[in-house]
């Protein structure tokens, strides 16, 4: 026995992509809701806009949703505006590959000094120089969830040593994962420190001045997790003194203000929170939304529920 249900999505493209993936035997209507008044009095699954979901989370209380399906993996601040009793699912399975690609790309670009190469090309300057590379480097990675595992898989062919750190010690996927309590001992050995931790009070400013001071001179810091994991003032201080280098996709504050010192410091590489913004996102989020709709229509529980369930 299946149920009929309505799904709202914020763009015509996503609506078309979801409809293509729905089981035609199920009675599922996909409607557009980007802003303003809701298109139906009752909407079973609400998919808010990507990266701008606060207003719709509040407004969704009026349509009695059975599920709100976010389009990002992170869900910082969602609990503050989520209607009481409504389950919220994140977009696990959508962004891991793209974010892992960017993390490895940032490492390669910084280690091989590709920004310097591009600037030389702009000046038509032939300047060959030695760089650090990834081979034989020791990489300490904070976090061992989906994105971190994607990074580990992509690094496997680079002949680097990867040391994973997470909330608890364990053996997983043939990798020894250290507990966060080991971090102080691991930082002095980290030639590259990669952050993939989620946001929240548990990780806020985990990497402070003391942690940065423990890194060896010339270490590279790569951040594709959350900007709040780092003490930004301490990060600016260490980078400005040439103590460490930085390649980051996320910041605190964000967007990074035009007059922020990180824009102009040497040995910095900045991307504007684009970890998941590749062509892989559209088909993957459509597949996930269609899957969630089918599960609810068949009376099954949704996947990826991280709040309110």
From TrEMBL:
Chain segments annotated as transmembrane: none
Boundaries of every D-isomer specific 2-hydroxyacid dehydrogenase NAD-binding domain copy: 104-275
UniProt keyword Membrane, yes or no: no
Keywords: NAD, Oxidoreductase
Molecular function GO labels: NAD binding; oxidoreductase activity
Protein name, per record: 2-hydroxyacid dehydrogenase
Annotated organism of origin: Candidatus Microbacterium stercoravium
